[in-house]
Amino acid sequence: MTTTLRPVRDEDHDALFAWQCDPAGIRMAAFTREDPSDRAAFDAHQHRVRTDPAIRHRAVERDGVLVGTVAAFTMEGDREVTYWVDPAHWGEGIATDALRLLVAEEPERPLFGRTAVHNTGSRRVLEKCGFVVVGEDSGWAHGVGAQTAELVLRLDA
Predict the structure, then answer these.
(1) Is the backbone of residue 32 left (phi > 0), alpha (psi -120 to 50) or beta?
(2) Rounded to the nearest 5°, which phi and psi values hold at 102?
(3) Exposure string (b/e) for 109-141, b if CB count within 10 Å is 16 or more?
(4) Beta-bridge partners for 116
(5) What are phi and psi of 11, to 5 degrees?
(6) Are 3 and 64 in contact, with CB atoms under 8 Å apart?
(7) What is the pTM of this model?
(8) What's the Cα-to-Cα distance from 105 to each of 5, 24, 38, rounded to whole Å?
(9) Beta strands 111-116 and 78-85: pairing type?
(10) CB–CB of 95/122 below 8 Å?
């Protein structure tokens, strides 16, 4: 099976929105939009992400089928990565493959990844791609409805 990255297209939005409304995905991601079911907010966010040249936002395909997204963006001066995979494809190595591909095309270092402490799968993805834990943070997580601890991971090379 081959994982590839391509630019996100308008026709991807319905699938991306559906995945980001999945209750299990919301709980795992934890740090989501206040109302993940707000399609107007989702569309506004997608427009902002797709038109900002500083954001590297890619659709993830497995054998030509859309299965997720991966992105690099700058927040508070740090270059960060994020990814989201269709819950129907969790556990297939897609997030790891996609992040490796993104890291290869993203020249800026260091890169940071954040994951809710309870999201051990996401931590494994980051660590398989060379990220190491450098600290902890916490914040209000809409996905779990409470203050939630998160790990901060860093990739230097």
Answers:
(1) beta
(2) -65, -45
(3) eebbbbbbebbeebbebbeebebeeeeeeeeeb
(4) 150
(5) -70, -10
(6) no
(7) 0.93
(8) 10, 30, 32
(9) parallel
(10) yes
Reported as a pLDDT band with limits 50, 70 and 90, residue 15 is very high
Residues 6+ apart with CB under 8 A from 76: none
Q: CB within 8 A of 55, min separation 6: which ones? A: 49, 71, 72, 73
Q: Note the CATH number of domain 3-155.
A: 3.40.630.30
Instruction: Give the containing element (helix H, strand E) for 150.
Output: strand 146-155
Helix (H) or strand (E) holding 47: helix 39-51
User: 48 is written with which tokens?
Assistant: 């902002």
The string of pLDDT tens digits covering residues 101-143 is: 999 999 999 999 999 999 999 999 999 999 999 999 988 777 6
Distance CA 28, CA 22 (A): 10
**By CB neighbour count within 10 A (0-12 exposed, 13-18 middle, 19+ buried), where does 73 fall?**
middle
Is-contact 72 55, C-beta < 8 A?
A: yes
* Sheet architecture: strand order including 78-85: 3-7, 56-62, 65-75, 78-85, 111-116, 146-155, 132-141
Domains of the chain by residue range? 3-155
